[in-house]
Amino acid sequence: MSTVLEGTRSDAAPQPAAGAPRGRKLVRNQSRAGWLLLTPALLHSAIFILIPVAFAIALSFTDYSFGDSWAWVGFDNYAELFRDQNFQAAFVNTIVYAVVVVPVSVVLALAIALGLNQKIRGIGFFRTAFYLPTVTATVAIATIWLWIYNPGSGLLNGFLSLFGVAPGRWLTDPNTALPSLMVVGIWQGLGTKVIIYLAALQGVSRDLTESATLDGANPWQRFRNVTWPALGPVQFFVLVTSIVATFQVFDLIYVTTKGGPGTATTVLVLDIYQHAFQALRLGFASAETVLMMVVIAVFIGLGRLLQKADTHD
């Protein structure tokens, strides 16, 4: 009897699948192929991102200035930064620019994408029109807006004069220079965000939307409970790219105001450029770059926390 039971147990014991080694080999081959395909992107990131970042961090602790001799100065550059009034103005201007441009442009882009996702006549024209500023050179855009904001013969003052509004010195008045450039930044960056949102909206399940409609949900309820959750990953991507773009604004300001009047429109990248390539203080500029990277990381972290809080809600 025991012999029979032992035989039964032996027969019932799980046997290794014949195809298991072949399956593991297939997984290893797929993993190798994946890493092989990622190699160009990883090399690009290492050469053009990681290595320059490491050099910038190292140089921020020196007084290097394109000369043969340099010395290790520790945190002296960072201490000097916080005593530098130009840096303080650039830091505040950049934060204000980002705090205004990022949320306004994201909300506007989502609203426009929702409109362009409808079946209306001439939809292709409107999609092209909104995306056109993105592929236009910033120098050309800045030149056009210089004419629009021209205090003497500009289009904006000419339009406002029809309503009896006094002409403004949009780019030469410290109170209006930065807000005027914010308008340009918002307008120029809409196209990319609109296209990304539009692609995401077209991937939202129509079955869920129709089910919510049959259940009596109004348009706001359908957006809040169906569309908005489906846009979660896209929202974070748009947020990150928008934050990075606003902190990197340079050519628009350089062409239009060069940071003036005074320091009213000086931003961090412009201040870094002036210290590195005009004052030839590469170590000091590197310290400013490192601080800017830290601020960008903080903003992205706050955006991530807000997204998680919205997801839990």
Give an overview in words.
It is a single chain. With 313 residues, the chain is mainly α. The protein has two domains: 19-59; 77-312, MetI-like fold (Orthogonal Bundle), CATH 1.10.3720.10. Helix content is 73%, strand content 0%. It contains 14 helices and no strands. The longest helix has 40 residues, at 20-59. The N and C termini lie far apart (63 Å).
Write the layout of secondary structure elements.
Layout: H1 2-12, H2 20-59, H3 76-81, H4 85-116, H5 123-135, H6 138-148, H7 155-161, H8 177-201, H9 206-214, H10 219-230, H11 232-247, H12 251-256, H13 268-278, H14 282-312
Helix pairs in contact: 2-14, 4-8, 4-11, 5-8, 8-11, 9-10, 11-14, 13-14
Please outline what is shown here.
The chain is built from 14 helices and no strands. α5 (123-135) packs across α8 (177-201), α8 runs antiparallel to α11 (232-247) and α11 (232-247) packs antiparallel against α14 (282-312).
Briefly note the structural class of the backbone.
mainly alpha
**So, CATH architecture of the largest domain?**
Orthogonal Bundle
The helical percent reads over 70%
Radius of gyration: 28 Å
Number of strands: 0
Choose one word for the global shape. Answer: flat
Number of helices: 14
Summarize the biggest pleated sheet: none
CATH fold category name of the largest domain: MetI-like fold
Descriptive key words:
73% helix; disordered N terminus; single chain; 2 domains; mainly alpha; flat; MetI-like fold; 313 residues
